[in-house]
Amino acid sequence: MAAPRTPSVTPDTRPGLRERKKIRTRREIRRATFRLVSARGWDATTVEQIAEEAEVSPSTVLRYFPVKEDIVLTEEYDPVLEGALRQRPRDEPLLESVRAVVTGAMRRSLDEEPDEVLLRTRLMLEVPAVRARMVESAGVTSRMLCRVVAERTGRDAGELEVRIFATGLLAAVLETTLYWAERGQRDDLVELVDRMLRTFEGGLARIDG
């Protein structure tokens, strides 16, 4: 999912040492990119400039992020998010589990890295290549969510209903984030996501009244 960062890492979901080193490198590249884009704009920021700012080689940047758009979109914590969802009570409604994990991650992101969240969502709105890549890369998170849904419901992860639920939920998160950006990021994003989940849960019955 593009806007939120990651839930807090717990002992059960903490990545290994090698993975943590990769995460740190990715995070430095991402932070360098945000600094440059904030100062120069998206189109004027090159991979070479990002590498210099992050003190790595251009090939390292491209190894972690095959295209520039991935730098502001790719989340390194899908396994942690998956673990956080699995740690929710088994008898808790699935959407309640999603609400707790996603809104918690968003609150932390807005508290800890507000400038990055604001810039990321602005780029999603204003740069077509970023938005297109975001939709394309959502497939990884969708497959993760399918696994969690399948585990919680006893269904197969490849079933149509499971895939529709997972992809529909991710699309709803994306649309909510774009709605927030279109309105100048004035609203409370966490409240909007909670509102989206209530609408998703109620479906057309909620819209029809």
From TrEMBL:
PROSITE patterns: HTH_TETR_2 (PS50977). Coiled coil: none annotated. Keywords: DNA-binding, Transcription, Transcription regulation. Residues 23-83 form the HTH tetR-type domain. The keyword Protein biosynthesis does not apply. Gene3D superfamilies: Homeodomain-like, Tetracycline Repressor, domain 2. The keyword Hydrolase does not apply. It comes from the Bacteria. Residues 1-21 are annotated as: Disordered. Residues 46-65 bind DNA. Pfam families: TetR_C_14 (PF17754), TetR_N (PF00440). This is TetR family transcriptional regulator. It comes from Streptomyces cremeus.
